[in-house]
């Protein structure tokens, strides 16, 4: 049995993680902690893998605390920058337990991970590309970490293919062209009734390709969360892994 502790257990995502762990035949819920609880209660003696789903303002401190405790951690909170990821890598290099692991995913939905992967494959074939992400109005970050990750992957694929900058003849002062992520425009929609959705629009003269992923319920993220926990408890490499695509046979 894989002993799993959940940090952020009373949150929107955390409650689903607790239910998913309780429903998994090969897992056992160790501790369910939330804001104000002492994370040092989570130790290698009672926990094989901790799952952290909180908010961007506290996730780095939580992850660093769990690493210092000698616990492997799966992180679903978004808002990670290269600098923050480097802090996690440094903490793992100094971790108290040899071979310690951390995993951070911009998105745990299999559909979103595949859309992200397919977008990097399509990127070199199209002159234009834009990313639109659509979420519920309570999402704390905009654009989403998933959309930023998608744009970064597309930009890297275009650069590797030697493509020029994406054409954009529109200049505005009001920000209507969205945020530029490595030269790729990313647009964020926040609307009541939505959950988590992403569209990647590719265009050439006379043709268009749309890649879209829709998650209608937070339960759609749970297979990816459990997959990551199982991988960390078994054969995932030591150190930091970013992105669920690393655990899929792509």
TrEMBL record:
What does the subunit comment say? Homotetramer.
Q: What is the lineage of its organism?
A: Bacteria, Bacillati, Actinomycetota, Actinomycetes, Bifidobacteriales
Superkingdom: Bacteria
* UniProt pathway: Amino-acid biosynthesis; L-lysine biosynthesis via DAP pathway; (S)-tetrahydrodipicolinate from L-aspartate: step 4/4
- UniProt domain Dihydrodipicolinate reductase N-terminal: residue ranges: 2-108
Name a single GO biological process: diaminopimelate biosynthetic process
Primary role: Catalyzes the conversion of 4-hydroxy-tetrahydrodipicolinate (HTPA) to tetrahydrodipicolinate.
Q: Where is the Dihydrodipicolinate reductase C-terminal domain?
A: 114-246
Give me the reactions it catalyses: (S)-2,3,4,5-tetrahydrodipicolinate + NADP(+) + H2O = (2S,4S)-4-hydroxy-2,3,4,5-tetrahydrodipicolinate + NADPH + H(+); (S)-2,3,4,5-tetrahydrodipicolinate + NAD(+) + H2O = (2S,4S)-4-hydroxy-2,3,4,5-tetrahydrodipicolinate + NADH + H(+)
Mind telling me what this protein is named?
4-hydroxy-tetrahydrodipicolinate reductase
Annotated GO molecular function terms are: 4-hydroxy-tetrahydrodipicolinate reductase; NAD binding; NADP binding; oxidoreductase activity, acting on CH or CH2 groups, NAD or NADP as acceptor
Q: Which organism is it from?
A: Bifidobacterium lemurum
Q: Where does NAD(+) bind?
A: 8-13, 34, 76-78, 105-108
The active site of this protein is located at: 135, 139
- GO-annotated cellular components: cytosol
Question: What family is this protein classified in?
Answer: Belongs to the DapB family.
Binding locations of (S)-2,3,4,5-tetrahydrodipicolinate: 136, 145-146
Q: Which gene encodes it?
A: dapB
Q: Where in the cell is it found?
A: Cytoplasm
């Amino acid at each position: 049995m894989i002993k799993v502790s959940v940090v952020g257990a009373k949150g929107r995502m955390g409650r689903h993680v607790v239910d998913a762990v309780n429903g998994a035949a090969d897992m056992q819920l160790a501790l369910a902690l939330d804001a104000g609880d002492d994370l040092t209660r989570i130790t290698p003696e009672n926990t094989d893998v901790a799952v952290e789903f909180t908010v961007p303002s506290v996730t780095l401190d939580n992850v660093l605390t769990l690493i210092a405790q000698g616990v492997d951690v799966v992180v679903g909170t978004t808002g990670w920058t290269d600098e923050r990821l480097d802090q996690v890598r440094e903490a793992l290099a100094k971790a108290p337990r040899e071979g310690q692991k951390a995993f951070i995913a911009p998105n745990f939905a299999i559909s979103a991970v595949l859309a992200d992967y397919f977008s990097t494959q399509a990127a070199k074939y199209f002159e234009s590309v834009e990313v639109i992400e659509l979420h519920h109005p309570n999402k704390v970050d905009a654009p989403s970490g998933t959309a930023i990750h998608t744009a970064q992957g597309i930009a890297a694929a275009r650069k590797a293919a030697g493509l020029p900058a994406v054409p954009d003849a529109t200049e505005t002062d009001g920000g209507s062209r969205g945020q530029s992520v490595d030269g790729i425009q990313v647009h964020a929609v926040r609307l009541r009734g939505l959950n988590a959705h992403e569209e990647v629009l590719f265009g050439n003269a006379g043709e268009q390709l749309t890649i879209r992923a829709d998650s209608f319920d937070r339960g759609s993220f749970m297979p990816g969360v459990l997959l990551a926990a199982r991988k960390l408890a078994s054969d995932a490499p030591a150190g930091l892994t970013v992105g669920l695509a690393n655990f899929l046979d792509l």
